[in-house]
Amino acid sequence: xxxxxxxxxxxxxxxxxxxxxxxxxxxxxxxxxxxxxxxxxxxxxxxxxxxxxxxxxxxxxxxxxxxxxxxxxxxxxxxxxxxxxxxxxxxxxxxxxxxxxxxxxxxxxxxxxxxxxxxxxxxxxxxxxxxxxxxxxxxxxxxxxxxxxxxxxxxxxxxxxxxxxxxxxxxxxxxxxxxxxxxxxxxxxxxxxxxxxxxxxxxxxxxxxxxxxxxxxxxxxxxxxxxxxxxxxxxxxxxxxxxxxxxxxxxxxxxxxxxxxxxxxxxxxxxxxxxxxxxxxxxxxxxxxxxxxxxxxxxxxxxxxxxxxxxxxxxxxxxxxxxxxxxxxxxxxxxxxxx
Amino acid sequence: xxxxxxxxxxxxxxxxxxxxxxxxxxxxxxxxxxxxxxxxxxxxxxxxxxxxxxxxxxxxxxxxxxxxxxxxxxxxxxxxxxxxxxxxxxxxxxxxxxxxxxxxxxxxxxxxxxxxxxxxxxxxxxxxxxxxxxxxxxxxxxxxxxxxxxxxxxxxxxxxxxxxxxxxxxxxxxxxxxxxxxxxxxxxxxxxxxxxxxxxxxxxxxxxxxxxxxxxxxxxxxxxxxxxxxxxxxxxxxxxxxxxxxxxxxxxxxxxxxxxxxxxxxxxxxxxxxxxxxxxxxxxxxxxxxxxxxxxxxxxxxxxxxxxxxxxxxxxxxxxxxxxxxxxxxxxxxxxxxxxxxxxxxxxxxxxxxxxxxxxxxxxxxxxxxxxxxxxxxxxxxxxxxxxxxxxxxxxxxxxxxxxxxxxxxxxxxxxxxxxxxxxxxxxxxxxxxxxxxxxxxxxxxxxxxxxxxxxxxxxxxxxxxxxxxxxxxxxxxxxxxxxxxxxxxxxxxxxxxxxxxxxxxxxxxxxxxxxxxxxxxxxxxxxxxxxxxxxxxxxxxxxxxxxxxxxxxxxxx
Lengths: 339, 558
Fold this sequence. Notes:
The complex is a heterodimer of chains A (339) and B (558).
Chain A: H1 3-10, H2 13-34, E1 38-42, H3 49-53, E2 58-65, H4 80-94, E3 100-105, H5 108-114, E4 133-137, E5 146-149, E6 155-158, H6 160-173, E7 180-188, H7 194-201, H8 206-216, H9 220-242, E8 245-256, E9 262-272, H10 286-290, E10 295-297, E11 303-305, H11 323-328, H12 331-337
Parallel strand pairs in A: 1-2, 1-4, 2-3, 4-7
Antiparallel strand pairs in A: 5-6, 7-9, 8-9, 10-11
Chain B: H1 11-20, H2 24-37, E1 42-47, E2 51-56, H3 63-69, E3 97-105, E4 112-117, H4 118-133, H5 145-152, E5 153-154, E6 172-180, H6 191-201, H7 215-228, E7 237-242, E8 245-249, E9 267-273, E10 276-285, E11 306-311, E12 314-316, E13 336-342, H8 360-407, H9 415-434, H10 441-469, H11 478-491, H12 507-513, H13 520-537, H14 541-557
Helix pairs in contact in B: 4-5, 8-9, 8-10, 9-10, 10-11
């Protein structure tokens, strides 16, 4: 299967619906709020399908592309995927769809944790401006940590969620008032990173402990999305607040990808708050977040509450499942976004 | 004799480009030159994983011009006026990348494009080389240049390239170098390396006043001199992106290369030969008798000591190349940073851009350089040196006089001390008088004042000496002592007896004050001696200054 066929294989209808009907309106809204084109950082496929769909709102792209998934990076691996993505983005730049872009050679976690990518010149990751869209599509990647070789030639490990933390830290350190951004995160339901295992075996508060206890009684196939969702909420809430951002989680979309693989699509809206006396508190409480039902994509390519993945305590979202309306009804919006 | 296309082998393109563009950055320079020749004001260079993009807002090319650009060694450009004129520059990335794509557009026309498959060309040449070595083919079987180019260059017909392929406003050209050779791209993928190179070789604007006090003034003056002499002088805005790092580039001069972040106002000289305008030189002299600062260790700055030869804005050779015209020593040369800009259209750079093409005019230019330009700058530096040295003597003798005054005790009963003080005062007066012609303005007045004070004090000490030596009574002395010493002291308020020690911050700076030239190896050796021995001997900074002063004195007394 050639590269283009591979891209098409993973570009399922559900993925397209999320891209067009969920993410795109949110980006259009963010674009209207920040009043300028957005800066995208993510893991696009070599044909940059997500970027192409969102071109009306994006003008700068920072992309990460590994050479030979899922193997650890090595200098002798073929760079064709990296070069293919670069070529796609260069075409978009030439045809004036993008202003500029850059591609980093490697897994995002290894590049960010180590500080440089796999090019022979050790290209550093430098962030000069506010990233307004993070699209971290880890859907095909279920392993964490990944091994990499550091500058002394020693083997080290980098976790995917370390990369997210590092990104938010870079974002925090850019001087800019009222930072606002959206993070999309796609994970496989069978995500089994080591940091995830630790989370399940050592829940660090009673809300999570109770939730895990409830979920553990479900059948094997059913409990995975709940556990991954709890893990993401917990981890990202901490990472966001530690870096002075208030997270607002929109409902998680549960959908089937290529070969019916179950995937989770998270949307987190980040807002910078002034660091007065300590870390900011999210307006959303973990317990109520955990009790939000999953969304799914109906046959008519619409979003609705997932009826088969529902716990007894789940609080209904209602019928009008529109990402902008959901966000606008949040306390985060009312307190930090509403003019 | 009839010559056919088979008489020019395809290998010629590889040989020429390898020789002319040994550094991958040279190829980037070539495409920037083309952009400037096309009238661009703004150029962007973007370096990515395996590609370089050079984009400009020049006039662009239509089908005919692009067709002509393919020619090897044939150019419609005007030597002298245009920077590139050899007709080879388009192939400068032949060994650097796999594919060259050009997208270009002239105002109100459809875009045009061109593709050159360098990888394919190199592959053919490489295969045929191997086959020739193994005796499989003979020289008659080698591919000729025309056939090679026809096989690997794609030039779509007029109107074939769609508007949306290159939908720019106005006009411009975009060069894409794809599939960089990973062995060669190290120098391109390092922002500092590439920006240093481009800042030296491209005709860029100077930094603003905040970064370089004299930049705007120099730029205006060059424009003014060029205009008066009907010479062509263009500068461009160049934006460089390597990875996510993006910066606007400027000429490399900044305040911080000068002592105390300050240079003297720039000096200019027009270079003429038999009333023919050749160009001009500008130079900024360091504000202290020191060389221009070298970059801080482990940073990627560069040495800006001396003058760089430029043809219009593009550099020719290196700064060290011109030092020989400024005499045997680099003492004055290294206290300047500047440029010698050739604006005469007849004086051309050679193909490698490391020297001027041999010509009568080049000879004349070099004579002018040696007999007019270098002496002009050296004389200014010399004059400053003399004045500065005189100022140093003034300060030193003022401090010395203060010390003598402080030690003077009219009640002293040892006439030998008076005798020594008289000698010291004589020395002070003699040293000040010896520099009389070098003092300027206030220093001259100050020197006269010091001589007067020293003379008065000497007279007073002499009286005491005579009194003591003739054993006269001391009762009538006190009144006149106080009057003279108070008057002298009033004249010396700004001097400090303790300032007799010069505060050299390093051995190298002390050696520089002695006008000793050190090559880089000796420089490093003295740095090590300083770090490991002299600094180790000193228990305090004051003691360190004393050690260096002592060393200087010993050397001078040798």
